[in-house]
Amino acid sequence: MSRISIIPLTSTYGTTVEGEAVVIRGGFSPRYHLNRETGNFSFPGHPLDGQKVTGKILLCDFARGGVAAGWALNALKEMDIAPIALIFIRANPVMVQGAIFANLTIAEGLSQSDYHAIRTLDWVKVDPSQRQLIVDTRG
């Protein structure tokens, strides 16, 4: 049985997208955490190592990385292996610039409790115009 939750977001950019959630704990950098040839999470020892992120919505506690992270997002998008959205508790300006440059939906403002309630494989929809995340919790 699924449960639908509507979660407010504080800042959003992009188009409405929906897809499978991939929840990342401990920060996220597209440069250091993703294989830029496959679009898979590539961080040995991490619970998500090998997980495909192409076409999925990444939910992250915080953004990591500098200017190269923004360029990495654009490279992933150009190769059609990028996630379709990035949702953070707290983003950083470089990640926001990179997402806008790559024309990816990005948002921030998840509460800690909402972030910890969402699971990888939940179905999520990001609606930037309404500043909300709609979560269909599966299972």
Can you tell me about this structure?
This protein has 139 residues and is of the alpha/beta class. The protein has a single domain, classed as Glucose Oxidase, domain 1, CATH 3.50.30. The protein has 4 helices and 8 strands; from the N terminus they run E-E-E-H-E-H-E-H-E-H-E-E. It has an 8-stranded mixed sheet. Strand 5, helix 3 (93-101) and strand 6 form a beta-alpha-beta unit. The longest helix has 12 residues, at 67-78. The N and C termini lie close together (6 Å). The mean pLDDT is 91.
Give me the CATH fold name: Glucose Oxidase, domain 1
The tally of helices reads 4
In CATH, the homologous superfamily goes by the name Phosphohistidine domain
Q: Estimate nothing, just give the exact number of structural domains.
A: 1
The percent of residues in helical segments reads 10-25%
Portion of residues in beta strands equals: 25-35%
Q: Could you name the ranges where pLDDT drops below 50 across 5 or more consecutive residues?
A: none
Number of strands: 8
Terminal CA distance: 6 Å
Coarse structural class: alpha/beta
Widest β-sheet, arrangement of strands: 1-8-7-3-4-5-6-2
Net shape: globular
List keywords for this structure.
alpha/beta; Glucose Oxidase, domain 1; 8 strands
List the helices and strands and how they pair.
Layout: E1 3-8, E2 11-13, E3 17-24, H1 30-33, E4 57-62, H2 67-78, E5 85-90, H3 93-101, E6 105-108, H4 112-117, E7 123-127, E8 132-137
Parallel strand pairs: 3-4, 4-5, 5-6
Antiparallel strand pairs: 1-8, 2-6, 3-7, 7-8
Helix pairs in contact: 2-3
